[in-house]
Write a structure and sequence with these properties.
By secondary structure, the chain is mainly alpha-helical. The protein contains nine helices and four strands, in the order H-H-H-E-E-H-H-E-H-E-H-H-H.
């Protein structure tokens, strides 16, 4: 009931030949799913602990909803609702056209986006804004490690070679996180990193990317 008609239409445009009969091994791996569940449960406990101070800081800085949700496309383009701590002013989506896009391709980025609140900027630098996504992982809509989850309007403009990135579950982290995070501003570079992840995937590689992500987040590199 959360999905708009536009979201469903965007997902339906994915060519049938890109929905593999023999899906990527990571999708079928019980070990990966078990690690996702364990990681999600630990992450949700941490999320519960940090929510109250985040709520207080957020309401003092820019009163409004605590959480922000948006429709994204998951495995095989299936739409789902992703959750984050709100990092922008209320009504930010309606003001997007006022902000210059500094990225190339089908993504939107602006290093000094005026819609981001003071608390929101801190949440983004520390990646705390993404902690509610542990719920998406627990529900099986995302994985701890995977590809970047695209928006339906982005998928609607895909060219043939872009669809392959939808053959695995989207992740809270992945190649794009450890190799630049927000500093990766070319959509084709993101696609290349996502496809590289699919080729290199293994349980040990997932653990490697998780550990690398923790180090990068603690160093606050590449996020804005």
């Amino acid at each position: 009931m959360f999905f708009s008609a536009n979201s469903q239409a965007a997902a339906a445009q994915i060519p049938a030949n890109y929905i593999q009969l023999n899906v990527h091994p990571s999708v079928l791996s019980k070990t990966k799913r078990l690690l996702d569940i364990i990681g999600a449960l630990v992450g949700l406990v941490i999320t519960a602990l940090i929510t109250i101070p985040i709520v207080i800081a957020m309401q003092l800085d820019n009163p409004g909803p605590v959480f922000y949700s948006q429709i994204r496309c998951g495995l095989n383009g299936k739409p789902f609702r992703i959750w984050k701590f709100r990092s922008m002013v209320v009504g930010a989506d309606q003001k997007k056209h006022l902000v210059k896009n500094q990225a190339q391709g089908y993504i939107f980025k602006n290093k000094n986006d005026p819609r981001v609140t003071r608390v929101g900027r801190f949440l983004r630098r520390t990646s705390l804004d993404e902690f509610p996504q542990f719920w998406n992982v627990l529900m099986g809509e995302m994985s701890l490690v995977g590809t970047r989850p695209p928006t339906p309007d982005e998928v609607a403009r895909y060219e043939q070679h872009h669809y392959q990135r939808l053959l695995v579950k989207p992740g809270m982290t992945g190649e794009w996180q450890v190799k630049g995070r927000s500093a990766v501003i070319d959509f084709e570079d993101i696609v290349r990193l996502d496809l590289d992840y699919q080729l290199r995937w293994s349980h040990f590689y997932d653990l490697y990317l998780i550990l690398k992500t923790i180090g990068i987040v603690l160093a606050r590199k590449g996020a804005y």
